[in-house]
Amino acid sequence: MLKRTLLLIAITAPAISHGAVYQCKVNGQTVFSDQPCGDDAQKIEVRAPKSQGGSMVSEGAQDFMKQREVDRRLHAIANEIRDLERRKVRARSDMNAALRQFDRDRARANNNIAGAVWEGSLAEGAEVQRQRYQSEIDTADRQIDRLNKERDQLLGRD
């Protein structure tokens, strides 16, 4: 109820306060009033002064909002770096598992022509897997470097 009352006052206050101003002469003196003060009352139009700046937000509030945005971005950068580090750990783990599987498969290859062909095929597959995972790790490292540079710029550590 109190909130509604305050809202109603806030909405109607400008309309109420924007009343007319009258100028008249009373006993030889100029008088200003919100109601006609005599037969010679003249209505005066009062205008608010023009705004000097383009914004109604104070400079301190603007600085606060800018710092808040910087803090928000720094937090997001920290989260992105943490996620990229996790991705690197997962990629290394998956790469190691793939290489262990290659070693197991290679151990099963017989010491004959068919086994040698299969072992060569396994080696090629293992190298492709290694390159794939290493590419993921390298990409994450580049992204982490970019985020660290952005963080340093935000902190003024150029």
Automatic annotation (TrEMBL):
Database matches in Pfam families: DUF4124 (PF13511)
InterPro entries documented for this protein: DUF4124
DUF4124 domain location: 13-51
Keywords: Coiled coil, Signal
Signal peptide bounds: 1-19
Annotated coiled-coil segments of the chain: 67-157
Protein name (database record): DUF4124 domain-containing protein
